[in-house]
């Protein structure tokens, strides 16, 4: 069944061989609260939509356009498997539309059982209608086949998550149109196309990939779906940039935790953070029992108050919004997405150049340390840490009051919010992120640092607890400083220091570029062996001396120091090793 509509404001061609349109919900869909979609009205709208689809291909030359053999490459997201299917296609040689990256060609395709109808009259006239998209020569990816395949995978993975979303019985089910790669192997260059089915109706871009929500078309389902993908994948990905007709979506963006694949729209944890920053859970989120993402209880989101007011009104309405666009008046049709605000912009200023604002010390609340910190990092932790950085650097731009103006009207960026940054650093630490635990520990220890410089929340005992948490989770920097603390504490805890130093011998030194939040270890591995040897030489404070082992460690440290062109240190270590050997043998 086609998606009913009247006078669409936008028309869109989408990647798909077949798709199930959103179910018609017999509820209020027009501007009048008393108007309902009766069966008669539905049949009329379906007829209008079918006639409109035919009009798009009214000028297609069935006889003049050559028939070609092609292979459809279809991706099964559930099994992570590509399958092939033979088809016959007719692709018009002249493009009918183009975007910034690709050109669009009208096409017809016959596949599978449809091939048996070729001998019948009017078979091409009745064939399914498609749009074949091809990259412009100067915009083509370095490896075009990989680019096309990733486009298809992105769409099909989104479709798979749409099916998972529907299994939870949301008020409105969603679907993504099925995309596939078409290879015309009869041509010399084996031309590749990304093929899409035509979708009539009012095309709406509900969100983008940087936290924008279109207030004019504010709906609960698109946002709840994005939140669902984050929770369902346990933070591995978040699907956003939701757009389409009603709840039949296409052309999404995917943010992944590793920031790999899926093109420039994949912003990784930063993209996830921007979505979750502006997202306020609605009744669909609550029905699906999605855990709200926790934010600082400050005025940092004051610029979103109007947006949230609109959303709260939407949550309280009793009328369905599925076909609100179908019956509403609309401007002339056009192809392609409409201009929209880009949402949260980023200021290019690095952290050290940020103009900090004065904030009262009472705002910097030290959250109580939970009784249980997860050993494995929670999937929300990295997003909290990213939000802490964005808040601290002032890189989250404010949205204008109406929340839906053009991008050029969004001129100011919010000043750095250290209170919000401090909250998210602590939340990431409580969720098991060792980097965040180091960050919080350095603030509480009042150490020289690049982050959170204008705060004073000194509590050294609590700082040591955070440092130990990071050490227990394998952080190299934290383990070294825990060993140092235990060795030089009053009274010293030499056995504990020995245990921490021993873990460092088995660990790989971190990358020098790795963020250590003020806890950077500058000692080379041979210096750590020398420190361990000094503990074993004399023992004490509950630690039994072991001079033979100390001599071995000093000899190893000397050889490594020599390899590192540290001759004086090597000579010193050899002398200490000889002294230990002499004492142990006497």
Tell me what you see in this structure:
With 586 residues, the protein is α+β, with helices and mostly antiparallel strands. It has helices at residues 39-56, 144-166, 220-232, 268-278, 283-287, 305-316, 324-327, 381-393, 418-430, 434-444, 460-472, 476-488, 494-505, 525-538, 547-563, 567-585, and strands at residues 12-14, 68-76, 81-91, 97-98, 102-111, 128-135, 175-176, 180-184, 191-199, 204-205, 237-240, 243-245, 248-249, 253-256. The strands form three sheets. It has a six-stranded antiparallel beta barrel with strand order 2-3-5-6-9-8. Strands 7-13-12-10 form a four-stranded mixed sheet. Helix 8 runs antiparallel to helix 9.
Widest beta sheet: strand line-up: 2-3-5-6-9-8
Gross morphology is: elongated
Based on DSSP secondary structure assignment, what is the total number of beta strands?
Answer: 14
Beta-strand percent range: 5-15%
The total of helices stands at: 16
Calculate Rg over CA atoms. Answer: 31 Å
What is the helix content? 25-40%
Along the chain, the helix and strand elements come as: EHEEEEEHEEEEHEEEEHHHHHHHHHHHHH
User: Averaging pLDDT over every residue, what do you get?
Assistant: 76
**Poorly predicted parts:** 1-36, 299-303, 315-358, 399-413
Structural class: alpha+beta
Distance between the termini: 95 Å
Biggest sheet layout = 6 strands, antiparallel, barrel
| Oligomer class | single chain
Give a short overview.
This protein has 586 residues and is an alpha+beta fold.
Task: Please name the defining characteristics of this protein.
alpha+beta, four-stranded mixed beta sheet, 586 residues, disordered N terminus, six-stranded antiparallel barrel
